[in-house]
Amino acid sequence: MDVFQAIVERRSCRNFKKASIPREDLVRIVDAARLAPSGANAQKWTFVVTTDSDTVERIRSALPHGKKYYPTFEDGEFENVSAIISLVFPANYRYYREDGGAAMENIYLAARALGYGTCWVQGQLQAPMGTLVRILAIPDDHVLFAMAMLGVPKAWPKEPPKKHLQEVLRWERFDAF
Predict the structure, then answer these.
(1) Residues 138/168, Cβ–Cβ less than 8 Å
(2) Checking DSSP bridges between strand 117-122 and strand 142-151, what pairing results, if any?
(3) Beta partners for residue 107, in sequence order
(4) Cα angle at 134 between 105 and 97, to 5 degrees?
(5) What string of pLDDT tens digits covers the 177 residues of the chain?
């Protein structure tokens, strides 16, 4: 799939079919993340891929989800997740937000190009952070930046409304139209 097509067609998917993702595809997705830019090329990331169904369910169950927490989301979301890719950084690494954002975007684009749906779960902002860290055996001197839920979508979500390019594009100066 062309990268621009993957960008246009990428969606946040929360409902998946019961299906597995071949290990080779997961390796390709993580390899795409590994190739993302990082501050001073430090590459301080570690990617934890979880495919064991019991562990995936423990993580899913620990997350706040459904209408109780997010009124616009569907109940039963993240059911049948095939894999979770967790992105972990040393806690003292200064550029983990920038590096993490680039790596996560590569995960989403690579997954879409291979036909998989994804949803970003912000690791640091989750109430059950301690539970997630314990499940994933993340050392105390590291932080869970984010997780990508992956699977084969039950249906591809419709394109969400986006601002028109002319609403967000400026040339030379912020106040120039």
Answers:
(1) no
(2) antiparallel
(3) none
(4) 30
(5) 788 888 888 888 888 999 999 999 999 999 999 999 999 999 999 999 999 999 999 998 888 764 454 555 555 678 899 999 999 999 999 999 999 999 999 999 999 999 999 999 876 655 567 889 999 999 999 999 999 999 999 988 888 899 999 999 998 989 876
Burial of 90 (0-12, 13-18, 19+ CB in 10 A): middle
What secondary structure does DSSP assign to 38-107, as a single string? -GGG----EEEEE--HHHHHHHHHHS--STTT-TTSPTTTTTT--EEEEEEEETT-TTHHHHHHHHHHHH
In whole angstroms, how far apart are CA 4 and each of 32, 102, 110, 115? 16, 16, 12, 15
Q: Give CA–CA dist 176/169, Å, rounded.
A: 9
Look up residue 43 and give its two tokens.
């590459």
